[in-house]
Amino acid sequence: MDEKRIHFIGICGVAMSALAVAMKKNGHVKLPDGRHVTSWAVTGSDRGFYPPVSICLKDAGIEYYPGWHVDLMTKDGVPDLVVVGNVAGSHNPEWLYVKDHDIPYVSYPELIAKYFVRPNSIVCAGTFGKTTSAALLTWILKENGYDPSYMFGGVSLNEMDSAAFTDSSYSILEGDEYKTSSWDPRPKFAHYSPTHLLLTSVEWDHADVYPKESLYVDAFKSLIERIPQAGLLVLSEKVSKIKRSEDQKIITYGHNNPNYRITELPNYCYMNVQTSKSGISFDILHNEQTYHIATPLLGDYMADNITGCFAMAHQIGIKPEGIIKAIESFKSIKRRLEKRLDGPITIFDDIAHSPAKSKAVLASLRKLYDGKIIAVFEPNTGNRKKESFPSYDQAFNSADIVIIPRLTSVKIAADDPSPPVEGDALADAIKKTHKNVRYIDDDEKLVQYIIDDIRDGDVVVFLGSHGFRGMIEQLCLSFRGVIDEESLDAPRIPFSEA
């Protein structure tokens, strides 16, 4: 079978890079419908390349280059297919060349729909926890003899790629509600044909795509309506904005509420949550049976994510003991309360890019640490709009100091009636309900401020989906010098421009 060429515009995104590696590794797989997947030669371009994505691409033997260069994209001939990421703006020369020369192109959700979706399509969706849930559910199935196709937008700390397609009849996909592409405004999960849906939460987010809360909720309502009558909805009790249908099989999960009568408990009810700096433990009650869970994952909210995965795995036929064993060995994914430095001073990195997500992370840390908590926060584009400002009220109360760094530059449409604000305006909005907020637009000064202010027992947590331009690494090196004199000669990591 002849090898074909596929090029990814914007390959450095976590999901795009995962799909690129999967396409490179999984040629000649026979799909359930009898089709064979062609072997692909994979190339990619992006604005810049940084670990861990650059390492993953290099290890997979994928050719990539920084910037947008038509000559490099076509040096071995015109690609047979181009996957266009949302990073490709209307003036991107590679994207313009693709359109001008009628080269076949798809968005990455369309690529997933063609190669990854299986007859038993499990989609993990929701404002919070969808990436962790998709990764954990994938791990549970893999550890129990299933070999699902899957994709989640994170880097696993277990020995597991972020995406793969197989000849299994099961697929597990992270269902992102953000828009598919510049030419398709539908949410990404609209392409995934769920037969099973794990819905973790619905709290208004991405105001740049959903300027009204009702539009955001409607996207999830539409997803639920796609589940066939013989399908399954595993629904968090926290989802209160969506009316439940009597025509669907719905399994609920959630936390034990002292005010519940026994008949009101969720089908899978977690309780007795214990948190420590080494993980969490809790019990799940289902049909009068109690199952004890212990995991190294941090954050008491992880009990909610784990219970949802337990419910879905149990409902498709996996025995509880097999589920529990897999949960115990799951190491999470990078940038989910990832401990970057553990010593007299502790540094965490978390992808929480919204006020609600940051609030949950900070509340969990406050339960574990008595020292001062310094939060460095950069929101996603939608949470830089003034429409989202009410959600910042009280969001950072568990932090002692909030620092807004120089925000990553974003493209602003000329006709945007509510363009994203800059860091000074965001800091002013947070100051309305927090007395200690600083805007520091110089990375070196920000790092030095933390070094000068912090004491043993304190915590620094970086919150946001961007990479913080080397500030985390610089702080880790600085404090390792305090903790371990042998690391004083470690090379300094330069700050990179956004």
What is the terminal-to-terminal distance?
42 Å
User: What is the helix fraction of residues, given as a range?
Assistant: 25-40%
Strand composition percent? 15-25%
The number of domains: 3
Top keywords for this entry?
498 residues; alpha/beta; Rossmann fold; UDP-N-acetylmuramoyl-L-alanine:D-glutamate ligase; Protein-Tyrosine Phosphatase, Chain A; 3 domains; 13 helices; 21 strands
Description:
The chain starts with a strand and ends in a 15-residue tail after the last helix. It contains 13 helices and 21 strands. Helix 2 (53-59) links the parallel strand 2 (40-46) and strand 3. The strands form 3 sheets. A 10-stranded mixed β-sheet has the order 8-7-9-6-10-11-12-13-14-15. The chain has a 6-stranded mixed β-sheet with strand order 16-17-21-18-19-20, sandwiched between helices. It has a 5-stranded parallel β-sheet with strand order 3-2-1-4-5, sandwiched between helices. The protein folds into 3 domains: 4-106, 3-Layer(aba) Sandwich (Rossmann fold), CATH 3.40.50; 110-329, 3-Layer(aba) Sandwich (UDP-N-acetylmuramoyl-L-alanine:D-glutamate ligase); 338-487, Mur ligase, C-terminal domain (Protein-Tyrosine Phosphatase, Chain A). With 498 residues, the chain is of the alpha/beta class. Helix 12 packs parallel to helix 13 (471-483). The longest helix is centred in the N-terminal third of the chain and has 14 residues, at 130-143. Residues 125-313 form the Mur ligase central domain. One of its GO terms (biological process) is cell wall organization.
